[in-house]
Amino acid sequence: MLEKLRQSNPGLNIYELSDPSFSIYGTVHPTVKLPKMREFLYNVERTENEFYVPCEEELMKLPEADQLKDDVFGQVPCQIGWYYGYGTKLNAVEYHKCSEVIYAFEACALILGQLSDIKDGKLDTGTMKIFYVPADTCVELYATTLHFSPCRAGQEPVMQIVVQSKGTNTPLLKPAEGKEKENSYLLERNKWVLVHPEAAGVTAPERFTGLTGENITIIPAE
Q1: With contact defined as beta carbons under 8 Å apart, do 64 and 29 qualify?
Q2: Nearest Cα to 34, choosing from 106, 150, 136, 135?
Q3: Pairing relation of β-strands 191-195 and 186-188?
Q4: Which of 96, 162, 163, 174 to pair with 77, CA 20 to 30 A apart?
Q5: What DSSP string describes 124-154?
Q6: Pairing relationship of beta strands 129-133 and 14-16 according to DSSP bridges
Q7: What H or E segment, with its residue span, contains residue 178?
């Protein structure tokens, strides 16, 4: 699949997770396997092009949740949710004050950046890298890693489990205020977002526009 994806995108450098450059963005958890969560997700009725649930109680109750909560998140409160989508563009970046752990059931591509590359509320997308994630892979993205919804690598949609600190990606409890400059792009709880002009007003309000350069696009492999 990776070679086919590279052939579909000759102008892009697409790296494997085993590439040394990935170490600053995250790590892989090869022992994590989630067959029961897969069964749940593939039985979800798909009514939209993409859908995200930050915390799914049915997933939280499964025995597989213990491995994610105890082994990966170190026994601190976390939430287990799910996402499916057909995206092919970057559109935005987000970051959290915690790792985000995803389990990809289908092959996908992650477009990743570094928090330190945001300058005065702006990020040049030319600083970002693309990584191919094989099917059935558990990936942890560090808190300093800029990311957004994965892009599909082939014709199948992105199908993934998403694990984060409890409350992440849920509505703010009160308006974002304070002296911290980054709070001007705090969209939801523990979710700071910068949007590309092409996606402003759809992905997030226009005031969150902060991406410059190309809205990176992945052409899925046939």
Answers
A1: no
A2: 136
A3: antiparallel
A4: 174
A5: EGGG-EEEEE-SSEEEEE-TTEEB-SPEESS
A6: parallel
A7: none
**69-117 residue pLDDT tens:** 999 999 999 999 999 999 999 999 999 999 999 999 999 999 999 999 9
pTM of the model: 0.97
What end-to-end distance do the CA atoms of the chain give, in Å? 9
202 φ, ψ (degrees, to nearest 5): -110, -55
Provide the edge-to-edge strand list for the sheet that holds 186-188. 92-95, 191-195, 186-188
Closest of 148, 190, 168, 132 to residue 14, by C-alpha:
132
Distance CA 149, CA 88 (A): 9
d(CA 140, CA 52): 18
* Contact predicate 59/40, CB 8 Å: yes
